[in-house]
């Protein structure tokens, strides 16, 4: 989905705002059933306007935080001989855009807490391992710093897109989990943010042999 179609709240570092919701003139039955199931305040759901209002309200709740996936990361750099220790980071996000009229898509933006957790892991664990597990060259620290800066940019502008049917995972408080394999896709996309440190090829050693 082109970034230009997303609301301003989807931009990097932008504060959270109510999501933009665009529904088709023909409402899907599953959406009606989902809204009836999760909405505590019962009311009519007979037209597009009522569906749009109800969906926007529940996705705007402070509790409307979705778990996209859970990723297992090492607690300490693997290059340190302290035994294998792992931590599970839950990748949480909120809905910024729903389009069931033209794109049949929903867009999620990472919460600031998840962003901060990932940035901390990249700096304190991932980057340290990259530094310890590669040989030394003159531009190594500069290249590592650029990777850290790029990660911060990428994780802040990260938007996860999936089909609108994912909203079937909606719960009463507006939160939810991705179903039907969507979580695996989200996990792969999060892992792709971690770009490896590429060391240059060592210069060849010339051995002088006596005659």
Global outline: elongated
Straight-line N-to-C gap: 68 Å
Average per-residue pLDDT, rounded, comes to: 89
Name the poorly predicted regions. 207-211
| H and E string | EHHEEEHHEEH
Please give the domain count. Answer: 1
For the sheet with most strands, the description reads: 6 strands, mixed
In terms of structural class, how would the helical and strand content be classed?
A: alpha/beta
Q: Helix content range of the residues, please?
A: 25-40%
> How much beta, percentage-wise?
15-25%
Tally of strands: 6
Task: Work out the helix count.
Answer: 5
Radius of gyration: 22 Å
List keywords for this structure.
single chain; 211 residues; 6 strands; elongated
Walk me through what this model shows:
By secondary structure, the protein is of the alpha/beta class. It is 34% helix and 18% strand. The protein contains 5 helices and 6 strands. The protein has helices at 29-38, 48-59, 112-132, 140-157, 182-191; strands at 20-22, 66-74, 86-99, 105-110, 159-163, 176-177. Strands 1, 2, 3, 4, 5 and 6 form a 6-stranded mixed β-sheet that branches. A hairpin with a 5-residue loop joins β3 and β4 (105-110). The radius of gyration is 22 Å and the shape is elongated. The model is unreliable at 207-211 (pLDDT under 50).
């Amino acid at each position: 989905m082109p970034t230009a179609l997303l609301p301003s709240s989807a931009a990097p570092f932008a504060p959270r705002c109510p999501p933009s919701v665009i529904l088709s003139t023909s409402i899907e039955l599953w959406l009606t059933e989902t809204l009836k199931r999760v909405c505590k305040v019962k009311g009519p759901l007979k037209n597009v306007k009522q569906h749009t209002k109800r969906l926007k309200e529940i996705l705007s709740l402070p509790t409307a935080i979705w778990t996209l996936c859970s990723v297992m990361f090492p607690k300490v750099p693997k290059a340190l001989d302290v035994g294998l220790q792992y931590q599970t980071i839950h990748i949480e996000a909120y809905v910024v855009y729903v389009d069931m009229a033209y794109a049949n898509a929903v867009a999620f933006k990472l919460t600031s807490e998840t962003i901060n957790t990932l940035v901390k892991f990249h700096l304190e664990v991932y980057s340290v391992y990259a530094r310890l597990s590669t040989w030394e060259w003159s531009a190594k620290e500069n290249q590592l710093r650029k990777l850290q800066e790029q990660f911060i940019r990428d994780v802040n502008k990260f938007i996860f897109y999936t089909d609108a049917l994912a909203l079937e995972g909606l719960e009463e408080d507006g939160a939810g989990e991705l179903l039907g394999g969507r979580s695996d896709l989200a996990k792969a996309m999060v892992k792709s943010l971690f770009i490896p440190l590429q060391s240059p090829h060592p210069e060849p050693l010339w051995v002088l042999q006596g005659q």
